[in-house]
Design brief:
The complex is a heterodimer.
Chain A: H1 3-11, H2 15-42, E1 53-58, E2 67-68, H3 70-76, E3 81-87, E4 93-94, E5 103-106, H4 108-114, E6 119-120, H5 122-130, E7 134-138, H6 139-145, E8 152-156, E9 168-178, E10 190-193, H7 194-200, E11 207-208, E12 210-215, H8 221-232, E13 239-243, H9 244-287, H10 289-297, H11 302-339, H12 349-375, H13 379-386
Parallel strand pairs in A: 5-10, 7-9
Antiparallel strand pairs in A: 1-12, 1-13, 2-11, 3-12, 4-8, 6-9, 7-10, 8-9
Chain B: E1 3-16, E2 19-32, E3 36-40, H1 47-54, E4 62-67, E5 70-71, H2 77-87, E6 88-91, H3 103-108, H4 118-131, H5 147-159, E7 165-169, H6 177-193, E8 197-201, H7 205-210, E9 213-218, E10 221-224
Parallel strand pairs in B: 3-8, 3-9, 6-7, 7-8
Antiparallel strand pairs in B: 1-2, 1-4, 4-5, 9-10
Helix pairs in contact in B: 4-5, 5-6
The chains are: A alpha+beta, B alpha/beta.
Bound molecules: adenosine-5'-triphosphate and magnesium ion.
Magnesium ion binds near residues 47, 48 and 169 of chain B.
Amino acid sequence: MSYFGFLFANLGRKKVRTWLTFLSIVVCFLLFGLLRTVGGMFSGPVSLAGADRLVVSPKYSMVTDPLPVSHTNALRALAGVDGAAHADWFGGNYLDFGLAFPTIPVKPREYFNVYSEFRIAEDELETFENTRTGAVASRGTAERFGWQIGDTIPIVGNIYPKEDGSLLWEFELVGLYDRPNSTAGNFEDFYIHYDYFDEARQHSKGMVGWIMVKVENPDEAALLASEIDALFANSGNPTRTMTENEYNAQFAKQLGDIGMVVNMILTAVFFSILLLVANTMIQSFRERLGDLGVLKALGFSDGRVARMVLYESLVLNVGGAAVGIGLSYALLIGVEPMLANFGAVELTSANLIAGLTIAALLGLLVGAIPAIRAASLPIVDVLRARG
Amino acid sequence: MNQIIDIRGLHKTYHRGGERIAVLDDIDLSVKDGGYLALMGPSGSGKTTLLNMIGGLDVPTKGSVNVCGVNIAELKGRALASWRAQNIGFVFQFYNLMDVLSAQRNVELPLLLTKLSKKERQKRALTALDIVGLANRAKHKPSELSGGQLQRVAIARALVADQRILVCDEPTGDLDRASANQILELMEILNTSHNKTIIMVTHDPEAARHAHECLHLDKGRLRAEADA
Ligand SMILES: Nc1ncnc2c1ncn2[C@@H]1O[C@H](COP(=O)(O)OP(=O)(O)OP(=O)(O)O)[C@@H](O)[C@H]1O
Ligand SMILES: [Mg+2]
């Protein structure tokens, strides 16, 4: 028998109880692995670039109250506005990847003027302008799907049928753009030509989802925003204008909320597991007072007996955590295609290490009280109580 | 003659609710190497307490307890634990084996404290089981053994690390006559052929007859058999 064998023999004293405890630890860390990984997909850093841009969106709903395209010209005419470009949400699935990237109908030159930090070759932009069924993708997206310029990209719409009722839209890839300091990960925009889109779609013609406005002086952005909203307040299509920073901040706050909810759930889960395992350890300790006293009589020192109790707790917790996180990663690999819409599933070693560290801390915490009590157990009294 | 146990002026006092209870009162006792001593006396007279002093499980209030050449009254904690592991084999009335371990693994327990290899540990445990006549029950769990067999496993555990002294607290107290006699015979063999010094507490005059010497404890004081 090895020392470890002895440890496991002790854990096997009450097999059912040990297994149940082990399984609850496994489930707990399964949850940890799942929530941390999926939660992590939503909490990437959000760029706060673009203090010089305003987002003009419908006051109420982008879906039910889109803006008329004519708002764009009205905005461009305002003092302090350096450019305006409208955009919309096309929706739609690429092959069987689902919503693999956002597809956004734009006026090519206007849009890239407003997003002046995006890099695109002039000749490609020009081709885009002049090709009604043309499209440009980010270099990352093109690499991800192995696209070459000239390829036809089929997208099945789910909001906009064509006039003939067909949902299949095909676009010709005519250019690639680079987005410095992108934080969109795999989820970068795919731009199509608004003119073609608007002409070919069955409904909502002449409408757009939102309008980006480039301001001349970022210091006056807030003022300009309220001017814009005042301008359209009494039109049939009132607006709500924010700086891109505010817009992002609002978005970031929602992501932060998801992260906070995940952490709150995990805290609750860990707290209940802590109570459960602590209860098991204390119960098992009480049942073994006699055994521990005998071990001490045989010459096991106080420290050795305490360590034994502590190791048992560690083996149970860290073992359960390793199995649980392992299972969660296996599960995540299994459902990865379903999550592709939201971004890449990343099984980080940071989460694994964090999980095992939490497990070790849990193990130390729930093992500490029985261990300390085991160390201070008076042999003579224990043996006397045992007869 | 070489005294393996030499106790001088031993006092043990317990305090209970402000009251002082003198459990052992000025005990002098010596046992020579290879001796076999029976301790008798009424319940509560302090027999187990004295045994615990000899075995290094308890510390005296006053006096010296020289066992195997060490005054264990001065040892503490880890030093005392490892001294016990090397010198004393304990045999209890109710065996005190671990339910989760087989006979062989129970016997092997004290060897976990040594530097012996796993193989060597297993071999020694089997040899010890062989000495007590239970080599064929090595894989059995305590729940599968009789009282007499359990006590023999416990004795194997008490000698596996070559301890020089067996400290036995009513080793036959839980056994029928036949099993008790087997245990007593075994202890006699260990005393004569294996040179184990044995200190045995017993209520059984039959058992006491196996010992070389019998002392009586009464209210914490020792008396020789003759005065009884
Ligand atoms: N921890 C303690 N605190 C207070 N009193 C104690 C303690 N341990 C033992 N005693 C008392 O010491 C006395 C001697 O106890 P001990 O167990 O040595 O007797 P014993 O001769 O072995 O009795 P028995 O034959 O019943 O086993 C008893 O009166 C007991 O109540
Ligand atoms: Mg007693």
